[in-house]
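Handout, section B. The chain below has 131 residues.
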Amino acid sequence: MGKVKEDCWYCVPSYSLYSVAQGQQEPTLKYKIHMPTCCGGVCVNVCKEGCCNCRIPFYIYTPGKQGDNDEIGKIVKVWSGLGTELFTDADKFELLFPTDADPGNKATLLGMLFLLNTMFFERQNNKSVEM
């Protein structure tokens, strides 16, 4: 179906999504995924989705077109309420697929959502498991 590769990043986490077509040996670069940027792509733009709305976006871009309004899809962590955020580890996400995504790309983007959840939003408990 495809694979996701984490690109080298300094301040802005970025990923490349590769698609593998049937009968094709080498994967082709399909999408670039990163948080919205400002200051010439050096910093994360925390106000892109609006100020004080607790939305954390990762935008999906066509390779080579990564400007301010060139996103073709997005993965956004959405605020799920005070009780849920404080007392559970449950997260709520919004995934808008690009219009040109085939079922294999959609499955890979869904896997990308799980990767982002694991890397950025899951709490690590330092408790040992007792048996």
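Note. The helical segments are 82-87, 103-121. Compare this with the example in section A.
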